[in-house]
Design a protein that fits this description.
mainly beta
Length: 325
């Protein structure tokens, strides 16, 4: 009946790069059940989980708190490139299985991105009954350089979200391939069922910045939604081609999802400039009662129950330096 607490601090050792990965999963499987993970970020870059080469991560009943007092670059899970990512141009018969996340009944609060993707490997992210509140983005995509040729057409990042309640300071998806013409990212497919997504006011739900044509960038995202709602007051989808100075703003009709916006979705208001993400409790994720023509029902969003981890902030209230050797 006890839940172990694992406390971690991202302090790189002498002579090491100023980055840290708490769990490195390379071509294997890590499964965690009914534990609390409390992370304090002290390095310039930190990832709680780092996955590459067909790695798989399963979390069940896990609570994660990321404290980042100095606002460093941090993510709960990152997908790293395998070598030069030449796999991106391999046919199916030569390719390994994809990287996969499978999280259920989890509570995630942190001053970080949830996902960071720098790989061109195909990946599947399945979230079932998850509450997440992050200072960054749900998925930040930087892609990688393709030396020659192009990415295989059937590669994709699949986000399968069901009974998710997410409070996102920097939106759902952020893609930025920089100024390099040969930097690519895999197409993104989002399936969002019975979920509630709340984005900081005036921030776009999706933002893409890259040197591909705007029409090409637009084809890289597909979304499908059922009984889900989005509290988004800013642009739904913003696409920028910086070198050409082009910018396009799209609404939900571009995603073929209809009107799914519902303002003031949460039971209690979010004061974004004052919010301390690691300290949020169960009450901060509860939704208001659905009104007449709402695009949701009583099962929309995370479902709190016996299997869901307690929302006790515990050690997250004050980040502290561990007595590390």
């Amino acid at each position: 009946g006890l839940r172990p607490v694992i406390e971690l601090q991202s302090a790189p050792g002498p002579g090491q790069p100023d980055s840290a990965q708490m769990f490195q999963i390379v071509g294997g499987l890590l499964r965690l059940q009914n534990v609390e993970l409390h992370v304090t970020v002290r390095s310039a870059r930190c990832a709680l989980f780092s996955l590459s080469q067909s790695a798989e991560l399963k979390l069940e009943g896990v609570s994660i708190v990321v404290s980042n007092p100095d606002g460093r670059q941090a993510a709960v899970a990152e997908f790293l490139a395998a070598g030069t990512d030449m796999q991106a141009m391999m046919p199916d018969s030569m390719r390994r299985e994809q990287v996969a996340l499978d999280w259920s009944d989890c509570l995630i609060r942190g001053e970080c991105d949830l996902l960071l993707l720098e790989s061109l490997e195909p990946a599947t992210v399945r979230l079932e009954n998850v509450a997440a509140a992050v200072r960054g983005a749900f998925a930040r995509v930087r892609g990688n350089i393709v030396p020659e040729g192009r990415i295989s057409d059937d590669r994709k990042l699949s986000l399968q979200l069901r009974h998710l309640t997410a409070l996102l300071d920097d939106g759902l998806i952020r893609v930025d391939t920089g100024f390099e013409f040969n930097r690519e990212f895999v197409p993104i497919v989002v399936e969002c069922d019975d979920s509630a997504i709340v984005v900081r006011p005036k921030e776009p739900l999706v933002e893409m910045i890259g040197n591909q044509e705007i029409s090409v960038l637009q084809q890289r995202l597909r979304m499908r939604s059922s009984w889900s709602v989005f509290d988004v007051s800013g642009p739904v989808w913003e696409i920028t081609q910086p070198l050409e100075g082009k910018r396009e703003v799209l609404d939900f009709s571009a995603l073929n999802m209809g009107n799914l916006i519902e303002n003031d979705l949460l039971e209690q208001p979010v004061h974004w400039d004052e919010i301390r993400f690691p300290l949020l409790t169960e009450a901060d994720f509860r939704l208001r009662t659905a009104a007449g023509q709402s695009n949701r029902n009583s099962s929309t969003g995370v479902q709190f129950g016996d299997r869901f981890p307690p929302a006790d902030p515990l050690a997250a209230s004050a980040p502290r330096d561990l007595d590390l050797p």
